[in-house]
Every structure is written in structure tokens, then in C-alpha cells.
Amino acid sequence: MGKRAESQGAKIFSTKCRNGVGLRVIVVKPEDVFVFRRPLKASNLSMKYALFVQQTQEACDRPIDPALRAAGMAYGEALRAAGVIVTAAGLQPPQTATMVSVRDGKRQVHDGPYAETKEFLGGFVVIDVPDLDAAIEWAARHPAAAHSSVEVRPLMAYS
Fold it and tell me: What's the confidence (pLDDT) of residue 120?
């Protein structure tokens, strides 16, 4: 393979890696590279979405209703059974927040919520589903959707 690749314009480099095993790297010109791809099935594609539960200050101040807690546990179990949950968490009340910013190279730390708003982020769920419609279906099933709002937002992919 080595002589054939060199005769076709590729460069071959041989070296040893740190465990002593020989390593051969073949470098070819970009115009000689062919990419073969299998067609992707729509059923294999998925996207991650964040479901943000927005709550009012009154909802944050109220003790947790046992029925609502049970509904949340059942919702979590349904997410697990469907295999779509990535992670989820409820948040402490907004008064426990600490805001951090850096201005002119100096760190600034402030207690409490930064913005004066009527609703606060009460929790989130990250799901991995085929499309926005599926994410909306899961958001509608969230127990908080009956008395608050659940924002659905696609996540940006980073590797």
C-alpha cells in the first residue's frame, strides 16, 4: 500500500507512538478524498431541547403541594421510560440567586435576582427528541404547564 500511495501523490510518514507500536500516517491531497455517507433515517435523528419552567413569585413562595410533587415524579418517570431525558433540576427561589459579572476587568457580585420580573426560572428539563413537535408534546405534559408556562428552546450543539 505504501509504494502505491506514494506513486499516486500521497505522502507517507512512519513513526512510533509512546508505547512502541509502529504508526503509519498517510496524507493525501484534499481533492483525492472521497466521503461515503450512509443515508440517515429520520428515526435516528434527534435534537436536544430545554424545557424552562417559568413560575411566579407566589408559586415560588408557596409550599410544594403533595399532588403537584407526585405529578412531577410521574412526569419524570414517563421521561425516563420514554428514554428522552438528558437531565432535569428544580431551582431554589430567586432570592437565593447570586449574580456575577465582570466590568473593566473587575468581578461584580450581587445578591438576589438581577431583573425585576413577574416570572422566574423555576426549573428545567433537557430532553433528546426527534423534533420540535415532540418537544412541545413533552412540554404540554409537564405538570407546571397547567398553572405556569413552559418555554421550549432548542440547544446549540457543541462538541
Answer: 86
Where is 7: in which H helix or E strand?
helix 2-7
Whole-angstrom distance, CA of residue 125 vs CA of residue 144 = 12
The domain 42-154 is placed in CATH, from the list 3.40.50.10260, 3.30.70.1060, 3.40.50.150, 3.40.50.1820, at 3.30.70.1060
Counting every residue written for the chain, the total comes to: 159
Phi, psi of 79 (to 5 degrees): -60, -45
Angle between helices 132-141 and 66-82 (to 10 degrees): 150
Cα distances (angstroms) measured from residue 117 to each of 44, 57, 94, 95, 114: 40, 9, 11, 13, 9
- For position 61, what pLDDT does the model report? 77
Q: Residues 150, 152, 156, 159: is their CA dihedral positive or negative? A: positive
Distance CA 120, CA 55 (A): 5
